[in-house]
Amino acid sequence: MTHEYLKKNDVDCYLDLLSSKYYMGTILSEKKQNIFLKIDQNPDHIIYVVKKEDELVGTATLLIMSNKLKNVGKIDDMVVSQEIDDILEVKKLLVVSLVKIAHSKDCEKITIKEIDDMQLFCDNLGVIKNKDIVINDNKEYY
User: Fold this and answer.
1) Burial level of 39, CB count in 10 A (0-12/13-18/19+)?
2) Does any domain span residue 142?
3) Alpha carbon distance 32, 28 (integer Å)
4) Edge-to-edge strand ranges of the sheet holding 107-112
5) What is the CATH number of the domain that holds 50?
6) Is residue 140 part of a domain?
7) Is it the case that residue 47 has pLDDT exceeding 80?
8) How many domains does the chain have?
């Protein structure tokens, strides 16, 4: 499996994967490219994807919110294809990757939603469901 930031040529697959979780309606091709451009131009809105054999099988979003005192990262919109065998591994790869990116952007706290099936893993990372917590940057995550 490979993992990387969302690229322009993956927008269609990304939106298809998202539509398996959220109602998206019909999105015209031009609108899809505008969505990508808005995301790509905002360094605090990161969409990360996992591919298996060049097929997009997972995605999650990291939003960086800044205030006067600190940066906070929010991991959200995690979607993994139900057609693969290693769903939990893809989720772990997304979380670990986004936690590392959040640290590189000086986030002192990171929150995550929808981690019921990987609570123990996230507890070991220091990530607690729907709560702000400090994550130890010196841990080996994966």
Assistant:
1) middle
2) no
3) 6
4) 2-5, 45-52, 55-66, 71-80, 107-112, 133-134
5) 3.40.630.30
6) no
7) yes
8) 1
